[in-house]
Design brief:
This protein has 317 residues and is of the alpha/beta class. It has a domain of 195 residues: Alpha-Beta Barrel (TIM Barrel). Helix content is 43%, strand content 11%. The protein has eleven helices and eleven strands. Strands 2, 3, 4, 8, 9 and 10 form a six-stranded parallel β-sheet that branches. Helix 4 runs parallel beside helix 10 and helix 9 packs parallel to helix 10. The chain starts with a helix and ends with a strand. This is NodB homology domain-containing protein. InterPro entries: Glyco_hydro/deAcase_b/a-brl, NODB_dom, Polysacc_deacetylase_ArnD. It holds the Pfam family Polysacc_deac_1.
Length: 317
């Protein structure tokens, strides 16, 4: 009896032990579920976004304004050899327009008022021509004095007096572009302003086979947009540092004072070479005195390309 009781007691204890183990296992099973959810959440955060979606950075702070990092934009790098070849071959090919140039990496003024002053040289410049009255007289004086100048011509006058254009070049002077009919370019649209320059270049090319690169805007006026546009088109914009105000009928003695007071190394002297008879008489009277004054004070009288070391033309045929 005792033996049977012991067996029965042992069986009860085994049954009780198995029940406790099952309860503990059942209670611990839910603990694995948060681990599975965490893994799913962690994986979802690193999945690539759907097409077109922009992933949001967890570290972006609205308060600080920090934005998610952007991938750098890929830009094609220019082929330096190709660019140099294009520059060398940028000659006249029958078109009145130059290929548009990208701005130079080196900083340079968009409008030039004077030379560097590295040597004691000045440039005489004459606007508005040519005509057969004053331009002829100016050329006669320059030839007698043995100096060369730069003539900023209008297309309308150049077309009317081609023989004067030829004489200017034959006697060693330089041509520059002064628009078609002398408007205020800032009152025109950019395309109209460019057309003023290109139309004049067409006339000069048809006469000479050369395209002018030097531009002087009427009244010396340009806005920022036109400065950039002309520069991109490859033009050198040249104004002046010495204004004789001869166009206003300024007396000869006063013209001389302007020259004496304003001229220095690298100076660019503004005068005119076209107008109604009587309008520029003081220019003709003053010009020999200006030349003598400059020479006596050690100035070399040069053209704009010589003063600025910039080309005057492209496409010589």
């Amino acid at each position: 009896m005792r033996l049977w009781s012991r067996f029965a007691l042992l069986g009860v204890m085994v049954l009780l032990g198995a029940g406790c183990t099952g309860q503990e296992t059942a209670k611990s099973a839910p603990a694995s579920k948060p681990h599975v959810d965490h893994q799913q959440q962690h994986t979802a955060q690193h999945q690539p976004p759907a097409s077109g979606a922009i992933p949001q950075s967890k570290h972006a702070s609205p308060a600080s304004g920090t934005q998610p990092a952007k991938q750098p934009e890929q830009r094609a790098l220019p082929d330096s050899k190709h660019t140099q070849a294009d520059t060398r071959n940028n000659h006249w090919k029958g078109s009145t327009q130059l290929s548009e140039q990208k701005p130079s990496a080196q900083s340079e003024p968009l409008i030039i008022f004077k030379g560097s002053g590295g040597k004691k040289a000045v440039a005489l410049t004459f606007d508005d021509g040519p005509d057969t009255y004053y331009t002829k007289r100016v050329l006669d004086i320059l030839k007698k004095e043995g100096v060369h100048a730069t003539f900023f011509v209008t297309g309308k006058n150049a077309q009317a007096h081609p023989e004067m254009i030829r004489r200017i070049l034959q006697e060693g002077h330089v041509l520059g572009n002064h628009s078609w009919n002398h408007p205020d370019l800032t009152r025109l649209t950019p395309s109209q302003a460019v057309a003023q320059i290109e139309r004049t270049n067409t006339v000069i090319f048809n006469l000479t086979g050369m395209r002018m690169l030097l531009v002087r805007p009427p009244y010396g006026k340009l806005n920022d947009q036109l400065e950039q546009r002309f520069h991109q088109l490859g033009y050198t914009i040249v104004n002046w540092s010495v204004d004789t105000r001869d166009w206003a009928g300024t007396p000869t003695a006063k013209i001389m004072r302007y020259v004496q007071n304003q001229t220095g190394p690298g100076g660019i002297i503004l005068q005119h070479s076209a107008g109604a008879p009587g309008h520029l008489d003081n220019t003709i009277k003053a010009l020999p005195h200006i030349i003598h004054y400059l020479k006596s004070h050690g100035y070399e009288i040069v053209t704009i390309p010589e003063l600025l070391a910039k080309p005057a033309y492209v496409g010589i045929r």
